[in-house]
Amino acid sequence: MTKIPALALSAAVIVAACSANPSNGQSAPADTARLDASGEQPAAPLAAAPFTVQDVAAFDEPWAMAFLPGGKQALVTERAGKLKLWDEGGTVRDVTGVPRVAYGGQGGLGDVILAPDFPASGTIYLSWAEPGDGDTSGAVVATAKLVQGDAPRLGDLRIIWKQQPKVTGRGHYSHRLVFSPDGRYLFIGSGERQKFDPAQDMDANLGKIVRLNPDGSIPADNPFAEKGGVAAQLWSLGHRNILGLAFDGTGRLWNQEMGPKGGDEVNLVARGANYGYPIVSNGDHYDGRPIPDHATRPEFAAPKLWWNPSVSPGGLVWYGGDVYPGWKNSLLMGALSGQGLVRMAIDGDRLHKSDRWDFGMRIREVEVHEDGSIWLLSDGKDGKLMKLVPKAG
C-alpha cells in the first residue's frame, strides 16, 4: 500500500495575470480569464475564484474517477492499466483483476463509473483500449464486481460492448460512460479513431454515441433499432473524439468533444441526431485544409458552444449545487491544452461561456462529490487529485 501525505491546503487561488510554475510541487493558482467569443459571447468573469485548491493525492496518468457511496473513497483509473482505490485517510491501494490494456498513444485504461444499483450489487463499469489482430485496437466496456477489503479486487469481469471495427492507430477511443438519471440506460461515447468517415457510417459504431441497457443489450426504442446490426446500438452520430458525457438536472444529455484544428464543441445530444463530422466542423484539418462550418449545412445539428482556438476538452459534469455561488445549473469542463476549468451556464437550450480558471496544468477529469464540492484530476505522469474548497461565505 502507498501512503499519501495527509491533506494539505495549497495557497489560496489567486486571480492574477500570470500563473505559477506547475513544476514547483505546489498547486498552481487559478486565474479567472475572459474566454474567446467563439460560439457565444461570454459573460464578464467573476471578480475572484470562489475556491482554493487542495492537493489530495498523486497518480500516474490518471484518466477518470468515481466516488463510492459516502464519498470517503474513490476509484481512479491510470492509463497504463492500473485501477486505484483512494481513501480519504491518505491510503491508495491497487485494485487487482484489471484486464490487459492496449497502452500507447491515447489508449489504455479509460473510464470508471458505478452501476445505479452499486450499493446492493457492487457492480462497476470500466472502459479500456483492447488490442486486436496485428496493429489494431478498439475500445471495450465491461462490468465487474468490486470486492473490497484489505486487498481490493475485481471479480466477474464481463465485456458487454466493443468498438466495431477495430482499426489501426492509437487515437480517439473516447470511451466515456454515463448512466441516464433513471439508471435504465448506459450511454457510451465512441470516438471515430482518427479515421474521419466512420462517424457517418451506420455499419460502424465509431464516431457515435451508443445507448444500451445496463447488461449490454440493445433497447428496442433506440432510434435506429429497426436497421439491426451495429446501427441498432446508436443514439447519435457525426461525432469526433467524445471526452465528456453528462446529464443535466432536467434529464438532457450533453457531450463535449475535441474538434480538429479548432472547433472543440459542446452539444445538446438529441435522439437520432447527426452532428456532422467530418462533413462539417467549426475547425479545420491539421494540414490546413478547410472544413465547411456547421452554418453551411443546417441539416446537421450544430454545437451549442465551440472554441477556436482549441481548449482540448477533458471531462464534463453538470453542477446543480449551491456550494459555489452562481454555479447552479452549469456544465463544468476540464481543459487539457487550455490548462484549466471552464464553467458554462445553462439557459434553456442555450449555453453561455461564463468563467474560466487557469490552473497551469492539463485538467483531465471533473467530478462532483456528494457534498457538492468539485474534484479534479490533472493529466500526465505527475497527475494530481485536487479538491476545490469553497471560500467561506
What characteristics describe this protein?
Neuraminidase; 1 helix; disordered N terminus; globular; 5-stranded antiparallel β-sheet; 393 residues; 28 strands; mainly beta
**Share of residues in helices:** under 10%
CATH architecture: 6 Propeller
Which strand order does the major sheet show? 1-8-7-6-5
Percentage of β-strand residues = 35-45%
Radius of gyration: 20 Å
How many H/I helices?
1
Shape, principal axes of CA atoms: globular
What's the number of domains?
A: 1
CATH homologous superfamily caption = TolB, C-terminal domain
CATH class wording: Mainly Beta
Which residues sit in consecutive blocks of at least 5 with pLDDT less than 50? 1-47
Strand count, sense and barrel status of the largest sheet are:
5 strands, antiparallel
What is the structural class? Answer: mainly beta
Average pLDDT for all residues: 89
- For the secondary structure, the number of strands is 28
CATH topology: Neuraminidase
Sketch the topology as an H/E string, one letter per element.
EEEEEEEEEHEEEEEEEEEEEEEEEEEEE
